[in-house]
Amino acid sequence: MSWTEDEIQEVWEKGEKVAGTDSNLFRKDACSAWMNRKEYGNRKSVEGWEIDHINPKGSDELSNLRPLQWQNNNDKSDGKLKCNVLSNGNQNVVKN
Known about the structure:
Elements: H1 5-12, E1 26-28, E2 34-36, E3 49-53, E4 65-69, H2 70-74, E5 85-88, E6 91-94
Antiparallel strand pairs: 1-2, 3-4, 5-6
Organism: Leptospira yanagawae
Keywords: Endonuclease, Hydrolase, Nuclease
InterPro entries: HNH_nuc
């Protein structure tokens, strides 16, 4: 799916704001993994993120979309979130 900049920003706004950080640049996903706004679509960055369909068979409506760190999005199975990347303080860690 090709998203417009406005759609990407709307989904970004759904990420969790963290006190003491610039929410225009950093937010957390549903697994508490850090995401960097500038790293949208970047699978080479541990703070890269993608637009996830909460219900994979659902619509492209904003209510069915959320920002998700790319590895957490990639590791979803049968629509279930696995949370293999989490935050540990100010950085992301991959669970073994």
